[in-house]
Amino acid sequence: MKFYLPGSEKMLANGRSERVREKKIGLIVATFTGGYFILLFLTPMMLTTGSIPELSGRANRIDYATEDGWGSWGNQNHGDNAKIGHNQEDLGLFSWSDLNPIAAFVYAFGDLNCHQKSERSWEINGNQMAVCARDVGLFLGLAIGALLWRKRGLNRWTIRDSFLSIFKDEQIEFLYREDRRMLGMIILISLGTIPIGVDGFTQLLSSYESTNIVRLITGMGAGFVLSWWSCAAISSKPNSFETAELVKLPANAKLVFKD
Description:
two-stranded antiparallel ribbon
């Protein structure tokens, strides 16, 4: 017996979706994040060698849109010993608005979201990448998390149950027998986000200086759980089920709603 709901994907008798929506969401997220990740490497390779100098801007600000007009904070002289910024003129002025459209998008997006500090970034073809090593890991993790969701994720009505659906039912039955699934989700998210927080804040509040490999790994972990949770949140769609009783959960658990 199969159920068909107007305006939703096909549902199976056991309460599982045929995963049309889940696959679509995973593919969209993976395409955008993975595409940008690939462009991070291709763009400096395709540009003229040495056309992107060492940069040092501010996170969540536009610093390198022009050389001396709007969004040119990064091209100003902030001194060689400044905690944020440096004397860009000594290293070569930079304006992403002068690049070709694809390269301009890659570096503009990096400019807006990343501090682009040269000492925390890699160079390719003599050109600094558009984001730091941690953000490179972040976008890689975002793409991997979305691909995993596309392969295994299920809409199980609630975000926490959808989030845990990438595991085989028998692997997480213990969470359902004791109703610890919210705790399980929080622990998994913490495993991905705590390392980046510890590394970043220790670096900010002490003399500790991380390495680009550590930044890459911690960024990848955070990006992975962020993408995983986001795909689960977007995919969780109660109106794909006629009733909550149709949601198949591990350990034969049932969704119960309090008045």
